[in-house]
Task: inverse folding
């Protein structure tokens, strides 16, 4: 097949597909859906982003991959998604290479697949509107509890020059049927906005604790449409997020911006979803939807459906952004969420509820409704670990408070069949004295 030379025209960029020029200057932010071959799921983009599509062989002036991070859309035992951008805003070529094994060399990555690409429109730091292409590489049909190596990038169809990332290593979630003694480590962190030096320090501390997955509770940036902050957020996190999948809850500062939904690779509608990871079932919800009525309406229904479907899970965790219970002097408890969602937490026996929003560290006594319980056997514990960079708020005490402290924090959650523990730590890595420890026979 003969390829037509790529040329630049005033006001647009022309790429090459099967010998025909493709005008990329016309942005079509209609959103759309693409089924991912061999994965059993689809990727859907919202209005404000292009429909996801297979890539075209278009290389920009600097196609070096950047902001690489892993996400989850399908079963974490058998799949993972690599997400990246490039230094230029032009490149639409997209490839992922991977193979089973740790710390492999590029030549050992025996599986090569096309990625998918879609752009979204947002303002840049220069005050101009830009179209930012996002690349995703979907790795499916993987083996549970297994280490894989991968790299992402592109090859120039004319010069054959390769522009690929370093090789990163990750592992899939364990199969608890085949490995009933499996233990997983869940990282928990949130509220980085505006404090990316501290964000880097918290992530370094978290990485030293070797999490299997990172749970982010929202507020990555000060305002969801502020693209330069997203660059900082993902850029600082790349050493960890390129090796450990991240799932996220939408925070109020994300403002339901297209920047949030296009740069994340999350299950379902990317707002309300559940995943199983080891013996833990993690339910995630958006408590600041575009329509506030959804909190007590459609989103409550989705939450109940996921709680009901996961009743058999050994351990049940629920992550959303704004705390139902908080003694911080800044925001405090959300009565609306207590009324809309806490009855479901009580009804379905959720063990641990994880939040951010208030920038302090808080652990409640076990609660059922408005009542403190004698043990975690009859009540959920609510934890706020709400600053991995954002300015700190004053902490406080309520009748529900077991511990509170004004500090930067993150945490790890160790989950095995018979026990789940939560251990918080400060910016310097020192342990916070009160967390969560519960056993089941």
Result:
């Amino acid at each position: 097949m003969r390829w037509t030379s790529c040329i630049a025209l005033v006001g647009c960029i022309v790429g090459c597909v099967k010998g025909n020029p493709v005008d990329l200057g016309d942005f079509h932010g209609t959103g759309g859906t693409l089924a991912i071959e061999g994965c059993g799921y689809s990727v859907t983009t919202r209005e404000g982003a292009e429909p996801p599509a297979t890539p075209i062989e278009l290389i920009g002036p600097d196609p070096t991959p950047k902001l690489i991070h892993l996400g989850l859309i399908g079963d974490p035992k058998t799949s993972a998604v690599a997400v990246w951008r490039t230094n230029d805003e032009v490149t639409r070529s997209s490839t992922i290479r991977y193979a089973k094994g740790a710390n492999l060399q590029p030549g050992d990555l025996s599986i090569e697949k096309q990625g998918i690409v879609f752009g979204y429109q947002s303002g840049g730091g220069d005050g101009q509107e830009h179209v930012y292409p996002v690349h995703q590489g979907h790795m499916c049909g993987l083996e549970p509890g297994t280490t894989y190596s991968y790299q992402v990038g592109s090859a120039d169809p004319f010069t054959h020059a390769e522009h690929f990332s370093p090789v990163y290593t990750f592992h899939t979630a364990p199969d608890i049927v085949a490995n009933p003694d499996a233990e997983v480590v869940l990282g928990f962190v949130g509220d980085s906005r505006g404090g990316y030096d501290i964000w880097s320090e918290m992530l370094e501390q978290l990485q030293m604790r070797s999490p299997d997955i990172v749970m982010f509770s929202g507020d990555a940036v000060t305002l969801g449409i502020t693209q330069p902050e997203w660059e900082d957020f993902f850029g600082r996190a790349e050493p960890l997020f390129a090796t450990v999948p991240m799932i996220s809850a939408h925070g109020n500062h994300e403002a339901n911006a297209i920047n949030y939904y296009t740069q994340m690779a999350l299950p379902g509608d990317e707002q309300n979803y559940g995943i199983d990871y080891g013996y833990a079932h993690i339910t995630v919800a958006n408590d600041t939807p575009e329509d506030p009525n959804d909190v007590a309406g459609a989103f409550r229904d989705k939450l109940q459906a996921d709680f009901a479907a996961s009743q058999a899970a050994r351990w049940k965790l629920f992550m959303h952004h704004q705390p139902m219970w908080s003694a911080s002097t800044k925001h405090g408890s959300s009565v609306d969420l207590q009324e809309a969602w806490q009855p479901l937490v009580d009804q379905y026996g959720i063990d641990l509820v994880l939040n951010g929003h208030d920038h302090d560290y808080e652990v409640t006594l076990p609660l059922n409704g408005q009542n403190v319980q004698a043990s975690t056997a009859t009540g959920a514990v609510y934890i706020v670990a709400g600053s991995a960079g954002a300015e700190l708020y004053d902490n406080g005490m309520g009748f529900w408070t077991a511990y509170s402290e004004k500090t930067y924090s993150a945490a790890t959650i160790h989950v095995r069949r018979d026990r789940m523990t939560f251990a918080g730590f400060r910016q310097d890595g020192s342990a916070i004295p009160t967390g969560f420890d519960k056993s089941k026979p």
